[in-house]
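Reviewers of the previous submission asked for a worked example of the structure-prediction workflow described in the proposal, so we include one complete record here. The input consisted solely of the amino acid sequence. No template or homolog information was supplied to the procedure at any stage.
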Amino acid sequence: MPTYLLLCNWTQQGIEKIKESPQRLDAAKSFFRDMGVEMKSFHMLSGRYDMAIFVEAKDEASLARTVLAQASKGSLRCETLRAFSEEEYRKVIGSLP
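From that input alone, the workflow returned the following structure tokens.
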């Protein structure tokens, strides 16, 4: 399955209830799993983004549906990037003309 990187920030609502964040993360992991998206790892960041989340999903539509549903709860906003594994990277580079 393709891997994606979600770069997320807490919204005002999310930061106002920051102490609830670990419980929201646990609920999100379960929600993602129920939606067919596997959360591979979660990292809190310092800098421009508050969180980095690596996920695997069968396609962009199922990931978009899951991320939009999660974001609609009001605690975070995410930017989604397709992440290529080293093996995928080597295939892409190897196929260049």
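The two ends are 26 Å apart (CA to CA). We consider this example representative of the routine output the project will generate in years two and three.
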